[in-house]
Structure formats: C-alpha cells, structure tokens
Write a structure and sequence with these properties.
The chain is of the alpha+beta class and 682 residues long. Helix content is 41%, strand content 16%.
C-alpha cells in the first residue's frame, strides 16, 4: 500500500491516482487500519471518497502538504464540475418543457451567443453561403429522417404535379357571413353553440397588418429576429432569422421542396423582437371573450401563432386541444381547408391510417388520404364526408371545438390564428381541462370563483365522466400547427387521460353482482377452512403470514450483508530484529480476532470459511500477510453474536490452548501503537 501511494506500484483495478492519492470510483469509503504509523486503506462501496478520508488522516499526522492541497483542489474542481453538469441537465429539462409549452426554444441570449460564434467561425463564408448553411441545419433538425444533401426533401416531385395545388372540382361547403351584418349574439346562436364552422368576411377592415405584413416589409423590420420553423427530435424549437426565411421563400431551389419549412411561431407575442406584431391586428368582436385568460399568460396553454408559409406547407389533420375553438385570419394568399364534423366512431386511426405512406405532412395527407374520404368505402362505413373550403385574403375561418381539420397553403400565405374558450362552450372545455391538466384547472377554477362565479357553479356541477363526454376527443397538436410539431405536455395529458379512462372502464366492468359473487366465494373458502380447522401453514392466512415473514427476513439479511470485500492487513515491525516469525497458531489467532471484529459490525448470513494458515515466514522478514473473507453492511453497525465458526471462547481455547499466551507475547514484543491496535481488536 505504501508503494502504491508513492507511485511505485500502479493503483488497484478500478482506482486512479490523483497526486499520490489512490482514488476509487464514486461512492466509496476508506477504512484505515493502522500498524506502525502505516494506514492500509480498504475500499468499501457506499460512503465518502477515499481522497477525503486520506486527506483527513494526513492532516492529523502532518501539516497539509503541496500534494494534499493539490488533491483537495482537484477534488473541489471535480465536485464543481459534477454540480455544473447536474444544473445543466436540470436546466435542459426545464428549457425543453418551456419550449414545448409556449413554442419557445433554448435561452435566447445563449442562442445569440451561439449565432455570434457561428458567424465568427464562418467569417470566411459569404452571406449567401452562411444563409444556406443555416437553412440546411434547420432542415436536418426539423426532419432528421430526410437527407438534405441526398435530395430527399424533393424526392416526391410534388412541385412538378399541378394537381397537388389544384382546386378544380372542389366544393365550397362552409358558409360565409359578414361581420357587418351578423351580430355577436346571432353568431353565438347560429354557429358557436351548435358547433358549426363558417368563414367571416369584413372583420379585418382597418388592420395595419393588411399593408405591413408582406414578405419584404417583414424582412425590413424583423430581418434579424428568429422565428420558429419547427421542432427537432428532442422537442426544442428550431428557429431561423427572417432574413434567412425570406431567402428560403424566394429561392427557386428551395421552392421545389415537397413540404417546405414555414413559420409557425407561438411566442411572437412574448418576445421583444416580434412583440410589435401584436399592434398590427385586433381580435375580432366574435372572439373577444377568452376564458383561459383568467389562468394567466404564464400558466395558460399556447393560444396564438403567426403563420407564414410557401405553397405546399400546412398542417395535417388534427383536433384542437382542450376543446378550444380557433379562428384563423388570412392576411395574404389562399388556404385550402378540409373539415370533418365530430362524429362518434370517427377516430385518428381512420383519418391517419398506417400503411399508405403518410409521413405527417399536410401535402402528403391531401395527396394520399383525402381521395379515400371521397370514396365509396368511406361512405359505406358510415363516416361523414369532408367539408371543403378555400379561404381568401381578408377572411377569417372559424373552426369549432371537436372538428378534425387539415390545412394546405396554395401559395405564399401570411396569417394569424388564435384558440379561444367562450362561455357557450365552457362546460366541455372544463371537462377536458380538468382531465388533461388538473393543476391548471384548479388555478382556473380559483380565478373563476372570483371573476365568474356563474361559470364556477357550472364547473362544480360537471360530472367527472358522463354521457355527454363519452366521445370527446382532443388532439396532441395545437391549432393549425405544423405537422411535424407536437406538444409533449399535451401528449402526456392524453396518455394520462387514456389511463384514467381505462381505469374507469375497469371499474365499470366490476359491477355490484361481481363484487357480491367474489365476497360469497371468499366467505365459502373461509368457512370451509374453519370447519376443517385449517390453522397451519396450509391456510391462506398462514401462507400470507409465512410469505410476509420470509420476505422481511430476506430483506433484513440483505441489508445486513450487502457488500463483500477482502481485508488485507500488513504486519510490519519497527525493525527487522523486533519482528517475530508468524506461526500457524498466531495466524489462526489473528484470523479469529478479525472475524470476531467483523461479526461485531454485522452478522453474515453464512459463516465465512477459515482461511488456510500461511507458511511460516523466515526470521528477519518484515511480517506476514493474510486475508479474511467476510461481509459487512455499509454505513450501519449491528451488535450480534459471534460467528458460528468461533462459537465460544471455551471451544476455541480447548483446540488452541497456546493461543492466548502467544498473542500476549506478540503484543509485548510489538511497537506500542501496533500492540494497542491488536489488543483493541482482541
């Protein structure tokens, strides 16, 4: 051990030397047994680092040296690095959750520094080359399954197929109303309460966005601001500067992408760089009421987005979350809509089946799945036909809660959309929120009791699960969201909701008749056992008691003997003349002493085998080395009986009558500290 500490020998396996201190893996303890001022460390799993114990022992005997100070400094650096890594991991989880919750991304300041570092590294590149590099990076992040250099973003050749964006033979099934002619109350009675979609005209007059929200004007004002264009595989937001997005939207090469990147940013109203966009439009009168505003901006789910995209971009079929309704105001361009009314039995598996080549993109859904919804097999299955509509500039599409819908941009479009909860649709929204987000619903109800006691009474009267909510469906994606974008929080809510529904179905399956039958069978078994006088281990109660006691004893034995190790002690005299030859009797005596000391710490489940006595050492040697295999429990002390191998002093003395005299003579000839230690163990 001394040679290892001085570097003459390599450290034991699994250990490393830190400035002369043998450092074992994390979570180890160092037990020091002292002979002639020599500390022999034995590493046991389950306690503090040996470097700290070694430093403490050294400080007691000698003043701190340069090597120990260095070791302490290194240990401090390691601890600081571990703490920093832990904080980074925790912050990463928080940032990811925040990203999924509000559509944001990593910390903006950190991202600014990353971009500055990238710009410095790419200083030799031209502005166009840097822009292309950023776009390629965004493509790889948002759709990692496609190879950018391999041309897989254009593999389907949709840009060559004119029918993909064609509106020929497309019905106009959604009614249009004028905001100047239809009052708010009439809108509620005709469309909001019965949950019917409509297109609203003349509701965007006077918006500044009609003139300022053009691609060139937005580049001029927000060219350096980063907007969200998707999410990566870990759920983090992928962002691009608007100047790069402008190049992507106007470049002929990128215009050939099957399903292009497009802006779908839900945090534009919270970031200083894009917050001025809120001043360019006003919420229509029909949707001025939004009950989720009582939850608070920080707690409420994402609810507003700015949407800017080229042809063939859009969102695949989905339902808005938490029974919210949506309005989508189109500033420029044209959007194709496909809507399905809430119908019992119409599920996601019918609208997005597997095995037909759907990749989650809107253009793929319209190209491969939409024709099936117009086929005879769809009608024969009793499923509703789709409602088609083309939204024009200056129009607002209203989508009630529970409606499946998909959107495809037919040309360059700029829009703003928002999800709302109104009084007429509060009951369903409350049920969905209470099931999906119980913590938020509790805060919501608390605020409603103060500001809207009438709605709080409605919430209190709602059943936990009733007939009216039997077919309620919500989606994991947000309104008009990108087909590649999903909310982790909403997915978790949906899974929790499905688990609750499964438990409810299981409870419903076990009705009163089943419970009565099970109780009768239990009474019959107990009565039969009482008649036969079964009180032995064969009865159910005894068997359960036996199993319980057995498990307790097993856990107790495991806790007392969880780590096995080998104690290696080195007996060395102060000089060669003072050393004594080791005999088999003295080795056996020391073996008994160490075994007894080990049993004072804990009692092993089985007696350890007595090691064979080593051969006598020649006179003049430094000492004898022997090892004892035993077991101890880390960080615990138990007072137990001696090991069965040495059950009593009398039996041992009868077989080794000369043991005590030999130990006493050995102690007399040893150095004082060594004799004191061996005597204490005895």
């Amino acid at each position: 051990a001394r040679r290892r500490r001085t570097g003459a020998l390599p450290p034991p396996r699994g250990c490393s030397l830190v400035r002369g201190v043998s450092r074992a893996p994390s979570m180890t303890t160092s037990v020091h047994i002292t002979f002639d001022d020599e500390a022999v460390p034995t590493y046991v799993k389950g306690a503090p680092s040996p470097a700290a114990a070694a430093a403490e022992g050294a400080s007691k005997k000698n003043p701190p040296s340069e090597s120990s100070a260095d070791a302490d400094a290194i240990a401090a650096k390691i601890a600081a690095a571990d703490a920093s890594a832990s904080r980074r991991e925790k912050d990463g989880k928080h940032d990811k959750k925040k990203s999924n919750a509000d559509g944001g991304g990593r910390d903006d300041d950190a991202k600014e520094k990353e971009d500055a570092a990238d710009d410095k590294k790419d200083a030799k590149l031209s502005p166009l080359e840097r822009c292309e590099k950023r776009i390629r990076h965004a493509k790889r992040a948002t759709r990692s399954e496609l190879s950018v250099s391999g041309g897989e973003w254009q593999k389907n050749g949709y840009y060559l197929d004119a029918s993909v964006l064609s509106t020929a033979n497309l019905g106009d099934d959604v009614p249009r109303i004028s905001a100047r002619e239809v009052s708010k109350q009439e809108f509620i009675e005709r469309f909001e309460k019965p949950r019917l979609p409509c297109i609203i005209t003349e509701a965007m007059d006077g918006w500044r966005a009609n003139e300022t929200w053009t691609i060139d004007a937005l580049k001029e004002k927000f060219g350096s601001h980063r907007f969200k264009v998707g999410s990566d595989d870990d759920g983090y937001a992928v962002r691009l500067k608007f100047s790069h997005i402008h190049h992507y939207l106007t470049d002929e090469t990128h215009a050939k992408d099957d399903s292009p990147l497009y802006i779908f940013d839900g945090s534009f109203g919270d970031k200083e760089g894009s917050m001025p966009l809120l001043d360019d439009y006003a919420v229509p009168e029909y949707f001025a009421e939004d009950l989720f505003q009582h939850v608070g901006e920080k707690r409420r789910p994402p609810y507003r987005w700015v949407v800017i995209g080229p042809p063939r971009s859009g969102s695949s079929v989905h339902v808005d979350p938490l029974a919210t309704s949506a309005w989508n105001a189109l500033i420029s361009g044209h959007k194709r809509w496909c809507l399905f009314p809430p119908t019992p039995g119409l599920e996601k598996a019918h609208l997005k089946p597997k095995g037909i080549g759907l990749d989650g993109e809107s253009v793929t859904w319209f190209n491969k799945m939409y024709p099936r919804t117009r086929g005879a097999a769809w009608r024969d299955a009793g499923r509703p036909p789709p409602m088609d509509a083309v939204q024009r500039p200056g129009e607002i599409m209203y989508v009630p809660d529970g409606w499946w819908h998909a959107v495809l941009n037919l040309d360059h479009t700029v829009a703003v959309t928002q999800n709302v909860v109104t009084t007429s649709r509060f009951a369903k929204a409350w049920r969905m929120t209470k099931r999906g987000r119980p913590k938020m619903s509790a805060k919501w109800l608390e605020k409603l009791r103060l500001r809207r006691p009438d709605l709080a009474a409605v919430a209190d009267a709602q059943p936990r699960r009733g007939e009216e909510s039997a077919h309620e469906v919500t989606s994991s994606s947000s309104s008009s969201s990108s087909s590649t974008e999903t909310s982790t929080d909403d997915e978790a809510e949906k899974r929790e909701e499905e688990k609750k529904e499964a438990r409810e179905r299981a409870r419903a399956a076990v009705n009163d008749d089943t419970l009565r039958r099970m109780a009768a069978e239990r009474r019959e078994r107990c009565g039969a056992g009482a008649e036969r006088g079964e009180r032995g281990p064969g009865s159910p109660s005894e068997r359960s008691k036996s199993k319980s006691s057995k498990s307790k004893s097993e856990s107790k034995s495991k806790s007392k003997s969880s780590v096995a190790f080998t104690v290696v002690t080195v007996f060395s005299g102060s000089d060669a003349s003072a050393s004594r030859p080791a005999t088999s009797a003295s080795a056996a005596s020391a073996s008994r002493l160490f075994s007894s000391a080990a049993t004072d710490v804990t009692s092993p489940p089985r007696p350890p085998p007595t090691p064979p006595a080593p051969p006598p050492s020649p006179r003049g040697s430094r000492g004898s080395i022997f090892s004892v295999r035993t077991s101890i429990a880390p960080l615990s002390v138990h007072t137990t009986s001696p090991s069965p191998a040495f059950s009593s002093d009398a039996s041992y003395a009868s077989t080794h009558p000369d043991a005590a005299p030999r130990i006493e003579s050995q102690c007399a000839g040893m150095a004082p500290r060594r004799a004191k230690t061996l005597g204490a163990l005895a």
